[in-house]
Design goal:
Structural class: alpha/beta
Strand order of the largest sheet: 10-9-11-1-12
Number of helices: 11
CATH architecture of the largest domain: 3-Layer(aba) Sandwich
Order of helices and strands: HEHEHEEHEHEHEHEHHEHEEHE
Distance between the termini: 53 Å
Radius of gyration: 21 Å
Number of domains: 3
Strand content: 15-25%
Length: 319
């Protein structure tokens, strides 16, 4: 479809706020940038520092090498950074045995989950781990447990309805911080009904940024016919924003990496569009989309829909 065909007299753009970088992502990227300054290159990062291809590619161009195994490190004198998603204890143990300097960029909110699952294990409880079993955050969370297997990873309400534990010990729960808040609540309710009165989840168990961005998408869905979420396909929190849009009645919801993936043909005839961005997506990607929209629509009106103001900042360690 040509630009002339999709040109329209007017488009209302509703920007979800908050959107984009959260405090944990800012901290993780800041840690890498400081390490580049202090230690130079090559610099190793265990797993993608955050799940965004633009962030990863930009750091790769600066000399960062992303690895999935410490065995990939060719120079053991170089530091290795643990990504914002965290890592199992065995990674730290191996790094120590190899004499590697470890710089930990695990999100402080993920670290809080790590501490909770260790406490639940110390108390001898059965543990329901709500999350995707292949996601690095869940791998890191259950990887905090050594010689303790009284946990089950539960990804869906259906699994919550059928999960069984080997004994009748009290049940505790932890969750991946980037899931849909409504789905986590549904799973937790099912578990609570089945197992009596397990240690419940609190609002703080889900990342504040996840909660806020999902609230903002629900709000802008009241005004728009289509929603574009900026974020990489492997970003759990970005995936959830697209899912929230669809659940809110938006039949045209899209997850795109950047402006090059804008679904122009799908937007033909649309008068109001919403834009959000996952917690690991740079704001410049949203700006680029708005700039491109200005080329396609003669009269573009921007509406900032602010559901909450965020001022969370996490300190960047200096060594």
């Amino acid at each position: 479809m040509s630009e002339k065909q999709i040109m329209s007299d007017k488009l209302d753009v509703y920007l979800a706020s908050p959107r984009g970088f959260c405090g944990g992502v800012c901290r993780a990227i800041g840690i890498v940038e400081l390490a580049l300054k202090n230690y130079g290159t090559p610099l190793y990062v265990h797993h993608e520092i955050v799940h965004n291809k633009h962030v990863v590619e930009n750091l790769r161009k600066q000399g960062v090498i992303f690895i999935e195994s410490l065995d990939e490190i060719s120079d053991m004198s170089r530091p290795v950074i643990i990504s914002a998603h965290g890592a199992p204890l065995k990674i730290y143990r191996k790094a120590e045995s190899l004499g590697l300097k470890v710089i930990d960029a695990t999100c402080p909110l993920v670290e809080k989950v790590h501490k909770k699952i260790v406490r639940l294990a110390d108390e001898g409880k059965n543990i329901a781990v709500i999350g995707k079993p292949t996601h690095p955050e869940i791998i890191g969370t259950v990887g905090q447990l050594e010689n303790y297997d009284k946990y089950k990873i539960i990804a869906t309400p259906q699994e919550a309805a059928t999960v069984c534990f080997d004994d009748d010990k009290p049940l505790g729960m932890v969750t991946q911080t980037t899931l849909s808040t409504t789905e986590v609540a549904e799973i937790a309710d099912i578990l609570q009904q089945r197992f009596g009165n397990p240690e419940t989840l609190s609002q703080s168990d889900t990342c504040y940024a996840t909660t806020h961005r999902q609230m903002a998408v629900r709000e802008i869905s009241k005004y728009v016919e289509a929603i574009v979420v900026v974020g990489s396909k492997n970003s759990s929190n970005s995936q959830q924003l697209q899912k929230i849009a669809a659940e809110s009645g938006i039949s045209k919801s899209f997850l795109i990496d950047d402006v090059s993936e804008m679904p122009w043909s799908e937007l033909h005839g649309i008068k109001a569009i919403g834009i959000s961005a996952g917690a690991s997506a740079p704001e410049e990607l949203v700006v680029q989309i708005i700039d491109e929209l200005k080329k396609h629509y003669k009269n573009l009106k921007i509406h900032d829909i602010i559901v909450v103001k965020e001022d969370v900042r996490f300190k960047i360690p200096t060594n």
